[in-house]
Amino acid sequence: MWGKGKKRFGGGGEPAAKRQAAGDDGPSEPAEDGTVVAEISKNKKVSVRSWKGRVYVDLREFYVKDGKTLPTRKGISLQLDQWKILRDNIKAIDEAIKENT
Predict the structure, then answer these.
(1) What Rg do the C-alpha atoms of the chain give, in angstroms?
(2) Region (Disordered): which ranges (predicted)?
(3) How many structural domains is the chain composed of?
(4) Is residue 26 part of a domain?
(5) CB burial class (10 A; 0-12, 13-18, 19+) of residue 63?
(6) Is residue 54 in some structural domain?
(7) Is 62 exposed, middle or buried (0-12, 13-18, 19+ CB in 10 A)?
(8) Domain holding 91: CATH number?
(9) Could you tell me if residue 9 is inside a domain?
(10) Which residues make Cβ contacts (< 8 Å) with residue 32, sequence separation at least 6?
(11) What are the tens digits of pLDDT across the range 28-66?
(12) Predicted structure pTM score
């Protein structure tokens, strides 16, 4: 039915990041649609953005193409209520990290 090594959805030979960057699913530049709050590493950033009237905390990997910084599909967008839960549990997360290192 499906060829070996081909994904069932999305098709095409291009990587998922290129398919998303070409669509309307997200911002093409973090500065256009969101405020970069922290750069975790060279290609990982935390930003706050508004989409469809809601505010999200976005933790995402980016790549550079033709001088533009573009988002990949690798990441997570947290709604404000989800962000507050994560923020309120930072101590417990830090303690778990200490126990496991």
Answers:
(1) 17
(2) 1-37
(3) 1
(4) no
(5) middle
(6) yes
(7) buried
(8) 2.30.31.10
(9) no
(10) none
(11) 344 455 788 899 999 999 999 998 999 999 999 999 999
(12) 0.60
